[in-house]
Task: structure prediction
Amino acid sequence: MHIYDLPTPAVVIDVAALHKNIATMADIHPGRRLRPHVKAHKCTGLAAEQQGVGHRSFTCATPREILGMIAAEVGDDFLLANETLDPLRLAALAAAQDDALITVAIDSEETLMAADKAGIRNVMIDVNVGLPRCGCPLSMAGRLADAARVRGINVRGVMGYEGHLMMVTDRDEKRTRVQQAMALLAEAHEDVGGDIVSAGGTGTYDMFSGTTVNEVQAGSYALMDSHYGQLDSPFVQAMWVVGTVISVQEKWSVADVGLKSLSLDHGDPKIEKHSVWFCSDEHTTFSPLEGEPRPKINDRVFVTPSHIDPTMAMHDIAYVANQFGEIIAEWPIDLRGW
Amino acid sequence: MHIYDLPTPAVVIDVAALHKNIATMADIHPGRRLRPHVKAHKCTGLAAEQQGVGHRSFTCATPREILGMIAAEVGDDFLLANETLDPLRLAALAAAQDDALITVAIDSEETLMAADKAGIRNVMIDVNVGLPRCGCPLSMAGRLADAARVRGINVRGVMGYEGHLMMVTDRDEKRTRVQQAMALLAEAHEDVGGDIVSAGGTGTYDMFSGTTVNEVQAGSYALMDSHYGQLDSPFVQAMWVVGTVISVQEKWSVADVGLKSLSLDHGDPKIEKHSVWFCSDEHTTFSPLEGEPRPKINDRVFVTPSHIDPTMAMHDIAYVANQFGEIIAEWPIDLRGW
Result:
């Protein structure tokens, strides 16, 4: 099967670009130095490629992602880098603890108690390092670790996500601010103990020299999107939502790729050599840049999403293509849901 | 089961509000005057409620939606109000033509030929009435209808979607502009023939008096969203993505509802009596308005999405609740995909 035979809209991954991205990151953060975030692709087939270059510890955003990774036998050490109070989901994680090392992030007494009640054996203290989201204040981290240990729970260390710094474009400014955020995390680590200091993302993966961070949680680097593509980085676009041109008018054309097949939260998608006018539920209206030919009905278009994570979560299957456009694998996007 | 027992994030429908919206629209456009658009909910359980008040013809955006409606035995007359060139999907529709009346929109020679080749028996001419998307120019409509009839295909009439006018807030201006758009459609109808003149949406459902439009394609009215909620209309919010407060800090709180459980393409979601700061993949950061109490960990929050259609498409199940918050039904969101 060829890209041109696929039912559209379809997620297509360029296997060479994917392998390049995975190899580039593994050179910089080999083995357990990288804890790839599976929320970016929700696909055990892709995670297996990350394991193939030596990563065996993974970051997950949902219990479902951890349980799906264990079922697919990819990875052996999973961090739920997100708070949950759901007793059934925590119990399901606890029941899987003989199959893999599972660690749950906590940032409050309540999340600690929920983990304890479910029988979770390992936690990580999630510390706020500047992004207004989850993570306890620095002053609370040590107490929370002590409270966990009193309950017989192992505290593996600290994590802090500096998500507010991902898109700082001046690299010197970014480095300074990441180092300041990581100084907070190091201070929390002194209070908390444990082996792990976990942080980072695709926007900051190369900003940790001189910090105590010993694992990086990047995810988007493998497939990329137009948002992260704005940054100066060695990672290349490796995924597109491929659509079919279904209507051609004098001034615009329409592809069958819309809001239900790509996420617009980071802005409109991009189509090379074309201008995107707007997206509707099932459509992207676009036109060629000056000097470019008008598309023809039934042409394929390669649409680059602005945000990879929620876009992948909209699809059932990722089609993996070689340089000839042949489909060499179909990877179920099997970690969707919560 | 109660709303407070649901795993979150979860789509919850207020059955009384849903029934009120469905009854209100059926009063204005009874029976086949309304062709409810199932793309707004992708849920045969909800479509069955629309059938319950007398609608048996439905609008669909994807072949999958039509085939799912037929499988669920809801409705008897389906319009694919969207162009497709996919031979396999058109063949699947053609194979279902003995089970229901299926009509496919066409706006070009190519879409006509694809429908003909697959054995589609009924088409509708999709005419551009001002929105830069699908729909042929007025000058082409009659020729396309003639070409269909030459091939032995029945032409049921015309459709034109005035999507660019949905959010015009001045009602007099909106009425004038809708009438202008529908004058184009009436002109196309003279050239095309057939019984049906189909148009409209939740933003224009009451703008067709004095036009030749004889069926309205509204969909969002049943559940609503914060975007359509800005308009002066009798329809009330009937759906929320219910989340759990997983983290509470001094200045903000975090719920487990994010970009993977609601669509941001029409703006940030809303939480009553609170200010929404921003959404991440799995989180909404928010804070109470002045004078309102701070949320507590494990509280439930009711998040109103800005755009209902892509939000529903992110979920497996819609939980239907009564006025006591009890879950009285679980409707699979069974029409997802293409």
